[in-house]
């Protein structure tokens, strides 16, 4: 088979890192599906091609066995057979909806943290507010003690980071054991935490505790460290560009803040790509995808496709068109509602507690991490002025 020419010249170079969205706009205009030698994958950049791909049963999720949402040695929902996955989704969804509706805890924790912010100096929204908020909420939702939570974080970190593979594996095994113990304790506790509810509901659909551990583990790992925290940070980054909107959200409350969080998820997707693999030869937007080849649905590009999102670079919380920031179809995100609701509550509390308007203390070019789109792993805000 002849090697395909690489169509992603300039990917990750300096110009890309300064403005990845301009890069994707140009590439999408040439071809909505393009081959990247560097990423060894077809990159899908238009909304319509992404939607087609997310519903095409020939595109499998086996890439997730090598790239799980958390480093424990247990299959995630992405690796379940379709019928089992559908049962898993039916079991989890109502409980996530229930805790998403109960915003009192988010409000209380956010208020306690916001009051502690020392805004007489520059402060980092991620480290001083968003990360501790996410950790405390997850601890509450799962009903973990501070000690077992810390131990879990430590083990997952080792299972992910340590160089020695046998050490990594051992840390993953111990983390799994700890989670399984927490599940049994929660099931017998009679409490109403998310974990206790799920642990009691689990046997009803024939789910194994290991599958519940695989669902819970990312909540203490990637969903907190990375994407969950970042949704709030990206929402504030967007509001920093429109100080007038901060006042509107402050006055408008939860419903408007939820729209801001939803628009932030589109404007700068925190999960930048969705991976798939072709189980058979297929065509996508006129491109021939061979069996075994990988696809990356580049959400950072898809969510700014002008064919779906008019004026895609404009942050507009009043948009009505749906985005694919939380995926779609049989594996679409189960926690999107919870993430946007928690972000919205935190935004309102923050804007009502810290004297605004919030202004960035860093240049857009100082955005700390890029990947396939911008990723604000920190957001330094200016000290309060006395005015
Ligand atoms: C900003 C926060 C979040 C973002 C951007 C996000 C994004 C996504 C995306 C794009 C997918 C689809 C992946 C694919 O099709 O390959 C997904 C799936 C999933 N998400 Fe989220 N997610 C977020 C928060 C959460 C939270 C808080 C939870 C749980 C509490 C959660 C649980 C899940 C699960 C279980 C799946 C897989 C469902 C299945 O296999 O059927 N997510 N998420």
Identify the notable features of this structure and list them briefly.
alpha+beta, Cytochrome p450, 15 helices, binds protoporphyrin IX containing FE, monooxygenase, iron, monooxygenase activity
Fourth-level CATH superfamily: Cytochrome P450
Widest sheet: strand ordering: 1-2-8-5-3
**Could you state the order of secondary-structure elements as H and E?**
HHEEHEHHEHHHHHHHHEEEEHHE
**What is the radius of gyration computed over CA atoms, rounded to a whole number of angstroms?**
21 Å
Q: Beta fraction of the residues?
A: 5-15%
Q: Regions with pLDDT < 50 over 5+ consecutive residues?
A: none
| Tally of discrete structural domains | 1
Instruction: Return the structural class.
Output: alpha+beta
Distance between the termini: 68 Å
Largest sheet: 5 strands, mixed
What's the total count of β strands? Answer: 9
Ligands present: protoporphyrin IX containing FE
CATH fold topology: Cytochrome p450
CATH class: Mainly Alpha
How many separate helices? 15
Gross geometry: globular
